[in-house]
Write a sequence for this structure.
């Protein structure tokens, strides 16, 4: 009989895990942190993290509002988000002993856009805008509108928080399920500069745009362009665009400016970005891009959450050894308990192999970003859609 | 009313345009690639398949390990019995310019349109217009004959077209180009092209396939997409269940693991006999892993049951341990071919 001395965590692997630990409870306790933005690639657990963090902060005494974008249906139910009225509603069933509060809402992007229009234009004009087919296309399906409206809503929540002395002191924002985390930072600006773009300017005020560059030549060009567009798309189309742009223009005084404003909100003190990734190559690559971008733009990064790490419970046994023993047990053709033991060992080998690969990927991230604090959250053996499992994710976020 | 019947072998035979959608990250690009390979390697006669992506992601070039695809149709793979796959990254701007040249012979105006940002404008702001142009490109490819013309006796340029389509959240809108542009462009060639495209999409030449994982959110989106697509008179073909993992314990063991009834002492004894120092922690750890696994398996079977309720053919594809590359995507294609036979769509 030989005894195994190998372990599933060779020393060199442990030594490489020098990434600083992400102190979530420290962040929650820091009253200077007023906005936390959870971002990352699609499906990695941004919404889950935002909700778990919100619950933990509320139970630690913060007055929290969580802005979710696309919660899984049952998570939405657990948070009491069945009413979709685009305003925060209190969550019930959490521990209020520390004096905290928890509100949650789910973003309705079209409605948020409509509200902006209603708030900034006089009634007659607002109605005209809302009925414009072009506005309807932009507000319900333009790539970037969701990101833009998430920021808009964040701005509104922040203003509400700042104006009420005992209102929210922590806003946690989930981000839209874009394929790239960077979309959240770039989309509003892209939408802004698009709506401020040359062609739209031309359509709305051809004379102004042609300026001193020789009105005649330029004017002819504009005419040719708009007559061609009219041919292709129909005359109604261009006139719809023109009314839309003219109306929005007076209302917003420039889209780009507004986008810049919301962007500034994100880089100011009190805001903190939490990047979420799954322990997979693509998701961690996204996280890398995003972290680099935040650092380049001097945006405040609190750290990386590596979510859904495989859970190893019998860490003392290496996969190769487990497989060898499983084979021996199977060869011996023993009773059902031998078969079961072999099954458990094969399962263990698979579990450890996956976990090892995940750990290596996380370490690779940390090697290239040694100063980014990291916390790993295990995959629960069920989906996260009740307060108990959110609490469990929250515990894991707080670290071992 | 839409056709809610599950497709049969005859429907599969007739299909020429295969649209592959699914929640983000579930494997749309991978499955579209495997499906194209499977279609191209049909044994009866060599097949020429066009595989197109429409979001400029260059996912196909990664999967097939070829240089980035452009707007030129380029061969990216060959299959055994002489079949081939032609790759294309459809770009709305290029499609619009091509279209303008074709119909208007624009010389100077084409350049001006670009310079003034009008091309950008038309292809970004009005989503319906962009979609008409993108699908329009495949509509054209579908009608094209071997001699390059769009009518006549020459055989079709492509035997099948596979589209790596936008995700489930956008697929309904993407495919209902007609109603989308109806409000924006009420007359003109964009409008009439939208109508021809709609005819193709609603015909029996087109099938929309959905890729999912055995997880709650992708399955939920799949079920919602099926409903939405049917309401729009589009035909749903196959539900591809991707990244399926074999259960590592038999049913009896799973049942025991789930209820914490795996016999600790005897397992511990077996391990010790086989030479493992079976400390209580180790055995508890193994049992915990089995418990976690049993719960995952349960969750997955729940999701599978929901998919089975749809009555659609389900094609299961395994999770490849090393991920997908230009070699292993062919493995998936082989499995897919077997599975198509299994569910009765091919013989
Ligand atoms: N059957 C499989 N086994 C192992 N890995 C897979 C399998 N299918 C897909 N993958 C991997 O999962 C990842 C996502 O797959 P893919 O890019 O095909 O998804 P997608 O739906 O096209 O994503 P997106 O929404 O970003 O376009 C890729 O890294 C791919 O290699
Ligand atoms: N640590 C975890 N353990 C188990 N399941 C998880 C975990 N984190 C997220 N999930 C599940 O993964 C799915 C996607 O998570 P979600 O937070 O909606 O991702 P995102 O917002 O990034 O798209 C949900 O069904 C959620 O319950
Ligand atoms: Mg989400
Ligand atoms: Mg893809």
């Amino acid at each position: 009989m030989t005894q195994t001395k190998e372990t599933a965590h060779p020393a060199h692997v442990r030594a490489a895990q020098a990434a600083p630990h992400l102190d979530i409870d420290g962040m929650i306790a820091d009253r200077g942190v007023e906005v936390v933005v959870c971002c990352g690639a699609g499906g990695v657990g941004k919404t889950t993290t935002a909700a778990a963090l919100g619950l933990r902060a509320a139970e630690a005494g913060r007055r929290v509002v969580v802005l979710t974008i696309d919660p899984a249906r049952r998570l939405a139910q657990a948070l009491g988000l069945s009413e979709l009225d685009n305003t925060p509603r209190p969550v019930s069933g959490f521990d209020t002993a520390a004096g905290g509060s928890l509100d949650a809402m789910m973003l309705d992007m079209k409605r948020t856009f409509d509200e902006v229009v209603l708030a900034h234009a006089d009634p007659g004009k607002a109605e005209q805008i809302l009925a414009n087919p072009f506005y309807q296309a932009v507000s319900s399906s333009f790539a970037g509108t969701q990101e833009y409206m998430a920021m808009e809503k964040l701005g509104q929540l922040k203003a509400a928080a700042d104006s009420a002395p005992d209102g929210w002191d922590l806003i946690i924002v989930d981000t839209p399920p874009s394929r790239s985390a960077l979309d959240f930072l770039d989309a509003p600006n892209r939408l802004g500069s698009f709506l401020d773009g040359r062609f739209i300017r031309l359509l709305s005020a051809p004379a102004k745009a042609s300026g001193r560059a020789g009105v005649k030549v330029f004017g002819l060009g504009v005419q040719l362009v708009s007559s061609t567009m009219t041919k292709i798309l129909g005359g109604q189309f261009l006139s719809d665009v023109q009314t839309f742009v003219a109306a929005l223009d007076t209302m917003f005084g420039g889209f780009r400016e507004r986008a810049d404003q919301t962007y500034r909100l994100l880089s100011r003190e009190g805001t903190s970005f939490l990047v979420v990734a799954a322990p997979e190559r693509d998701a961690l690559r996204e996280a890398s891009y995003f972290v680099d971008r935040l650092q380049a733009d001097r945006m405040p990064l609190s750290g990386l959450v590596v979510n859904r790490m495989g859970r190893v419970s019998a860490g003392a046994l290496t996969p190769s050894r487990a497989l060898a023993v499983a084979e021996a047990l199977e060869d011996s053709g023993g009773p059902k308990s031998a078969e079961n033991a072999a099954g458990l060992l094969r399962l263990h080998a698979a579990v450890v192999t996956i976990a090892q690969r995940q750990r290596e990927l996380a370490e690779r991230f940390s090697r290239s970003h040694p100063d980014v604090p990291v916390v790993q959250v295990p995959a629960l053996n069920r989906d996260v859609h009740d307060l108990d499992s959110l609490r469990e994710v929250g515990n894991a976020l707080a670290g071992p | 009313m839409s056709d809610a019947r599950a497709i049969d072998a005859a429907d599969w035979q007739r299909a020429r345009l295969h649209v592959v959608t699914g929640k983000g990250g579930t494997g749309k690009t991978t499955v579209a690639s495997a499906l194209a390979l499977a279609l191209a390697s049909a044994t009866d006669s060599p097949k020429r398949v066009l595989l197109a992506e429409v979001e400029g992601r260059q996912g196909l070039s990664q999967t097939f390990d070829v240089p980035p695809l452009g707007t030129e149709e380029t061969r990216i793979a060959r299959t055994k019995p002489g079949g081939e796959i032609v790759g294309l990254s459809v770009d709305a701007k290029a499609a619009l310019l091509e279209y303008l040249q074709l119909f208007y012979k624009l010389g100077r105006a084409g350049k001006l349109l670009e310079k003034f940002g009008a091309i950008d404008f038309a292809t970004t702001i009005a989503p319906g217009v962009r979609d008409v142009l993108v699908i329009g490109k495949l509509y054209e490819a579908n009608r094209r004959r071997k001699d390059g013309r769009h009518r006549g006796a020459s055989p079709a340029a492509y035997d099948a077209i596979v589209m790596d389509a936008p995700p489930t959240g956008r697929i309904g809108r993407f495919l209902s180009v007609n109603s989308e542009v109806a409000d924006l462009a009420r007359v003109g060639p964009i409008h009439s092209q939208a109508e021809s495209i709609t005819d193709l999409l609603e015909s029996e030449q087109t099938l929309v396939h959905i890729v999912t994982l055995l997880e709650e959110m992708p399955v939920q989106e799949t079920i919602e997409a099926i409903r939405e697509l049917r309401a729009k008179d589009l035909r749903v073909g196959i539900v591809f269940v991707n990244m399926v993992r074999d259960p590592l314990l038999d049913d009896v063991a799973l049942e025991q693991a789930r209820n914490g009834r795996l016999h600790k002492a005897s397992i511990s004894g077996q391990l010790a006999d086989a030479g493992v120092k079976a400390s209580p922690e180790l055995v508890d750890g193994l049992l915990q892993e089995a418990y976690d696994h049993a719960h995952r398996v349960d969750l997955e079977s729940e999701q599978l049951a929901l998919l089975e309720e749809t009555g659609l053919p389900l094609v299961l594809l395994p999770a490849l341990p090393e991920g997908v590359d230009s070699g292993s995507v062919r493995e998936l294609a082989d499995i897919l071919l077997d599975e198509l036979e299994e569910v009765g769509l091919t013989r």
